[in-house]
Predict the 3D structure of the following.
Amino acid sequence: MSPLLQKGILIVFEGIDGSGKSTQLRLLAETLEQQAYPVVTTREPTDGPFGRKLRALFSQRDAMTPEMELELFLDDRRDHVERLLAPALAQGKIVLCDRYFLSTVAYQGAAGSDPQAILALNDFAPRPDLALIFCASPQTGTHRITSGRGEELNDFEQEDNLSRVAALFDSLDLPYIKRIQADGTITEIQKQVLAAVQDLLSCQFSGERS
Ligand code: TYD
């Protein structure tokens, strides 16, 4: 029996690189699917044309001006909203999105754009019902990337950049934000995520389908 959704729900996963949000998104998707909720998972940058262009530039960030970079993230998001997010929400799905506009506020804010102006430029994008911000230290983040995944740090992931990004994530104060303490183990983090999502779902569902 699947719970009846009154409307779609948008849950976004935010935080610095290596904060563990992608792992937690997968775990939450599995849990919700086991409970027969209609789940859609997605991410930004997307796999569309603008997102592919952005990913290609991750290791040569200085090939673009900060203004061009911001514009490309916004183009990618407009495409994402039109193609996937708005239709899925209209169909009553629970959409789990790995990064959304708070990443633009924090990362492009750290690159010099005004955070409030970036927020205003994202007015076209549906507001999340819940934004989970994974709070981990930049040292934890870079350690998980280099030791855990065995990867080299790209231009976004350098520790001084991540410190600026983390400070901007910390400064955000919006009603839909819930902070997750993300320096601990996967299980400890998962408990916090489930508690936050259960709170949201208990307010959103009207009953059971028969
Ligand atoms: P990430 O989720 O780390 O993708 P992957 O796991 O495939 O590497 O996102 C890639 C980078 O994009 C990350 O360092 C943050 C950056 N980013 C921005 O700078 N602004 C944005 O608006 C978004 C969505 C991401």
Notes: Residues 4-206 form a domain with the Rossmann fold fold (CATH 3.40.50.300).
